[in-house]
Write a structure and sequence with these properties.
It is built from eleven helices and nine strands. With 316 residues, the chain is of the alpha/beta class. The strands form two sheets. It has a five-stranded parallel β-sheet with strand order 7-6-5-8-9. Strand 1, helix 2 and strand 2 form a beta-alpha-beta unit.
């Protein structure tokens, strides 16, 4: 654990952008300890006893919401899931109105997922509690990048010096953006692979490699991070067909053979088997870290909740 003067002390976690490498490492170190706790029979602590965590999801996400709910409850918080579908928000209430309502309820930490980029940051400016971005539009998903980093570090022993390929629908992926920022901050080399219509624009100065040929892009990489094809965010035709997309950009053993012999396979989920990844590759316990990512998610979110509630728990 870092020294107290080098511990994470920000009020919110809205993205990876702007974080120092030591802040990222602090969160990963905290999460490492929670991995071991979560594997024990007795998992519950009272660290957040008396504090209230509100999960406010404008987009459905069973995996992320459940992970945050488990994280809060294992730390002893009172966890409330607000059902946006039946709330006043659906009846025309603005984000600012929502913030005022939440302030009157005095929560200590707010976990927010929203379909619009920047909406979580707007909410954070108007509430009097810690805010965690659980994904906003195509902008960022910081806890996903942190759990991916923890997965890589535990399986590979390091992040610095590794070559990580992020493949697929880069254009619409908040996961890709957060991972690129985090991996570069910790000294990894990043390759972005996808069809020309789904590549990220304006990344020339980021220090990443861009490939439209998946076989060339995968050559020699240490980690293969697949992305979900986000058809719900697409207006117009970005790929000719799902079958053709899988042929060129779906991960198969044939394509994986070009990576390092011990290359790790990852996917943030939910997976479209036979679209982004062949099911037999996803289920390969020796190569796939997809279930590890799910496990690391709870630990990382516990670490973030611990760090962001420091003041609420009486810290300096």
């Amino acid at each position: 654990m870092p020294e107290p003067d080098l511990a994470f002390r920000r009020q919110h976690l809205l993205g990876i952008e702007g974080l120092e490498a030591w802040e990222i490492l602090d969160l990963l170190e905290r999460a490492d300890a929670y991995v071991e706790l979560n594997r024990q029979t007795a998992k519950k602590l009272d660290l957040l006893r008396g504090l209230t965590q509100v999960n406010l999801f404008f987009e459905t996400s069973t995996r992320t919401r459940t992970s945050f709910e488990l994280a809060g409850k294992r730390l002893g918080a009172d966890v409330v899931n607000m059902s946006v579908g039946v709330s006043a928000i659906k009846k025309g209430e603005t984000l600012i109105d929502t913030a005022m309502t939440l302030n009157a309820m005095h929560p200590d930490v707010l976990v927010v997922r929203h379909h619009e980029s920047g909406a979580v940051a707007l909410l954070a400016r108007h509430v009097r509690c810690a805010v965690i971005n659980a994904g906003d539009g195509s902008h960022e998903h910081p806890t996903q990048a942190l759990l991916d980093a923890l997965t890589i570090r535990r399986r590979k022993g390091r992040i610095a010096g590794l070559t990580v390929a992020i493949c697929g629908d880069l254009l619409h992926s908040r996961v890709a953006r957060s991972n690129i920022l985090l991996l570069l901050a910790l000294g990894a080399r990043v390759r972005l692979i996808g069809p020309p219509t789904l590549l990220l624009p304006h990344v020339e100065g980021w220090g990443v490699e861009m490939h439209t040929d998946m076989r060339r892009g995968l050559t020699g990489v240490d980690v293969v991070m697949m992305l979900r094809l986000q058809t719900e965010r697409m207006q117009g035709s970005y790929v000719p067909s799902v079958r053709e997309y899988f042929h060129y950009y779906g991960l198969t053993y044939d394509k994986l053979a070009l990576a390092s012999p011990d290359a790790l396979v990852m996917h943030p989920g939910p997976m479209n088997r036979g679209v982004e990844i062949d099911g037999v590759v996803a289920d390969d316990i020796d190569r796939s870290a997809i279930l590890d990512q799910v496990e690391m998610g709870v630990a990382v979110r516990m670490a973030v909740l611990e760090a962001l509630t420091h003041r609420a728990r009486g810290g300096n």
